[in-house]
Write a structure and sequence with these properties.
Layout (H helix, E strand, L loop, with lengths): L13 H4 L25 H8 L4 H11 L5 H23 L1 H5 L8 H4 L1 H35 L3 H18 L1 H29 L14 H16 L18 H29 L5 H10 L5 H35 L6 H22 L4 H30 L6 H4 L11 H14 L11 H5 L6 H16 L5 H16 L1
C-alpha cells in the first residue's frame, strides 16, 4: 500500500494501477489515486466535440430562433453565448487533473459538507434531470421517425444503451467519444452544406437588419447556459488525467472543442429551423438531409440520435455521481459499481415519468425555460467555485478533509452560502423568463443581463467573506499531508 501526493491510500490491483482495466469503472465520488491516472489531455477534445453533436444541441438552436430575432442576430448571439459560457466550463475542467475528484465534491470547501449537498448538489441533480427529460423526449421522437415505434417507447430503448455506457464509466465514455468524432463531425459538415447551399434559406435571412435586443439577450443566456450546464460535472471527465497535466492544456482541450462545436451545432439548428418554419427539430434535420439526396435525412437523424445516446450517458453518469454525493453527505456511502447502477436506475425511472408528463407538444416551452433557469442557478456557483480555486485557495485543498464532515471545511460554509444567496437575490430583478420578468429588466426593455450581475456579485461577496478563512492553517494541513505522502 502506498500514499498519493494528496495523502490518500493508493492500494489498487496491478491491472488498474497500470491503467489496463477494460471492465466497468469501480470508482464513483472517491479520490482517484495517481497510480490509477491514465489517458492524455487530447482525449478531452473528443469528449467535448461529440457532447455537442446531437439532437439536443440542434433543438437549442431551434428554440433560440423561435424567440423572434432575425437569423443573423440569432447566430451572432449564439457565437458570443458559446464563447462566454464555455470559458467557465473549461476553467472547471482544469480542476480535474489537479484534484482527482468529481467536480461537486470540491464544492464542500466553499459551501461546507452539508451546505454543498443542499445549496449546490440538489441544483446539479435538477440540471442532469431536466436535460435528460429533454433528451428523453427527443429520443422518443427520433425513434418514432426512424422506426415508427410509439414515442413513449423511445426513451426506455435509448436508456438501455446510454445507461450501459454510463455504468461502464469513465474509460468507455472516452473511448466511444473518440470513435464517434469523425462520423459525427462529417455529419455536421454535410448538414451545414445542405442548410446553406441547398436548405432553402434565402440570402436575405443573413442580412443584419435591425437588432431585437430582448431576443438577442435571451439567446445569449440560453446558449451560455447550455455550456455552463456542463460546469458542475466537466471535471468528472478529466479527473483521471495525471496531475502533471497543465491548467493551460486542460483548459484549451476543453474550451476550443466545446465552444466551437456548440456554436456550430446550435447555429446549425437555427439554420435548419429557418429553412423549415414551424417544423419539429427532427423534421427540420430530415428535410436538410433530404435536400442532398433521398434518404439523407434519415441517415442524419440516425447519426445525431447516436450522439444523443452519448450525451444521455454523460448526464446519467454525472447525475449518478451527484446523487451518490448527496447521499454521502448524510450517511457515509461506500462507492461501488452497484451503487452507481442503483442511482442510474432511479434517475432513469424518474426522467421517464416526467418526460411522459411533458410530452413532445410542450417540448419547446419546457426546454427553453429549463435552459434559462439553469443558467440562473449555476451562474453564482461557478463564480464562487472558480474564485475560490484560482484566487482564494489557489488550488490548495486537503483531499482528506473534503471527505470529513467534521473537518476544516465544516458542515456549513457560510462564506459560500452567503455569496450564493446574495448573488441569486441580486439577479432576480434582472430575470427575463416566460413566467416572470424582473422590474429592472422591464425598465431596460426586457434585456436579460442577470448572468453578468450574478457573476460580479457572487465573486465580490465571496472575495469579501473569504477574508475570514484561516488559509494559513489550511495550507499547513495540506503541507503535512504532502510530507506524509512523500515519506
Amino acid at each position: 500500500m502506498g500514499m498519493t501526493s494528496n495523502g490518500q491510500s493508493a492500494s489498487v490491483s496491478p491491472a488498474i494501477a497500470q491503467g489496463r482495466s477494460d471492465g466497468a469503472e469501480r470508482r464513483s465520488v472517491d479520490f482517484v489515486p495517481v497510480t490509477e491516472r491514465h489517458g492524455t489531455v487530447r482525449h478531452l477534445g473528443a469528449v467535448w466535440i461529440v457532447a455537442n453533436i446531437n439532437l439536443t444541441a440542434m433543438a437549442t438552436g431551434a428554440t433560440t430562433l423561435a424567440l423572434g430575432g432575425s437569423l443573423f442576430w440569432t447566430l451572432v448571439a449564439t457565437v458570443f453565448g458559446s464563447l462566454f459560457g464555455t470559458l467557465f466550463m473549461a476553467l472547471h475542467s482544469s480542476q480535474g487533473p489537479h484534484l482527482g475528484l468529481p467536480q461537486l465534491v470540491q464544492s464542500r470547501a466553499q459551501f461546507g459538507f452539508l451546505g454543498a449537498a443542499i445549496t449546490v448538489w440538489v441544483f446539479a441533480l435538477v440540471n442532469y434531470f431536466n436535460y435528460n427529460v429533454a433528451d428523453a423526449i427527443l429520443a422518443g421522437s427520433s425513434l418514432n421517425f426512424l422506426l415508427g415505434i410509439p414515442t413513449s417507447w423511445g426513451f426506455p430503448i435509448a436508456v438501455v444503451f446510454a445507461g450501459t455506457l454510463a455504468l461502464y464509466g469513465y474509460r468507455w465514455i472516452h473511448r466511444v467519444n473518440r470513435f464517434l468524432v469523425v462520423p459525427l463531425g462529417l455529419t455536421i459538415v454535410i448538414l451545414t452544406y445542405a442548410a446553406v447551399a441547398r436548405g432553402g434559406v434565402s440570402a436575405d435571412a443573413f442580412a443584419p437588419g435591425p437588432i431585437e435586443w430582448h431576443a438577442f439577450a435571451t439567446t445569449f443566456v440560453i446558449v451560455a447556459g447550455f455550456q455552463l450546464g456542463w460546469a458542475p460535472y466537466v471535471s468528472d471527465y478529466s479527473r483521471y488525467l495525471a496531475p502533471t497535466v497543465s491548467t493551460r492544456a486542460s483548459f484549451l482541450w476543453t474550451y476550443l472543442p466545446s465552444a466551437i462545436s456548440a456554436l456550430w451545432v446550435i447555429g446549425l439548428g437555427s439554420l435548419l429551423a429557418a429553412a423549415a418554419p414551424g417544423a419539429t427539430v427532427i423534421t427540420a434535420i430530415a428535410q436538410g438531409g433530404d435536400a442532398l439526396f433521398a434518404g439523407g435525412g434519415r441517415i442524419a437523424v440516425a447519426l445525431l440520435f447516436i450522439g444523443l445516446l452519448v450525451v444521455m450517458a454523460l448526464n446519467a453518469y454525472g447525475g449518478s455521481l451527484t446523487l451518490i454525493s448527496i447521499l454521502d453527505c448524510f450517511r457515509r456511502v461506500r462507492p461501488s459499481l452497484a451503487m452507481r447502477a442503483i442511482t442510474i436506475m432511479v434517475m432513469t425511472l424518474s426522467v421517464w415519468i416526467v418526460a411522459a408528463m411533458v410530452g413532445e407538444e410542450r417540448f419547446n416551452l419546457f426546454y427553453g425555460n429549463v435552459l434559462v433557469f439553469l443558467a440562473y442557478l449555476f451562474t453564482p456557483w461557478t463564480a464562487i467555485n472558480l474564485v475560490d480555486f484560482y484566487l482564494v485557495r489557489k488550488g490548495c485543498y486537503s483531499i482528506r478533509e473534503l471527505f470529513n464532515p467534521a473537518g476544516i471545511y465544516g458542515r456549513w460554509g457560510w462564506q459560500g452560502n452567503v455569496a450564493y444567496i446574495g448573488a441569486l437575490a441580486a439577479m432576480v430583478p434582472f430575470f427575463v423568463t416566460a413566467p416572470y420578468t424582473g422590474w429592472i429588466a422591464r425598465q431596460i426593455g426586457d434585456i436579460d443581463i442577470s448572468m453578468f450581475v450574478g457573476l460580479l456579485v457572487a465573486s465580490a461577496l465571496y472575495l469579501l467573506t473569504s477574508r475570514t478563512l484561516d488559509l494559513g492553517a489550511e495550507r499547513s494541513l495540506v503541507e503535512k499531508e504532502r510530507k506524509v505522502s512523500e515519506s
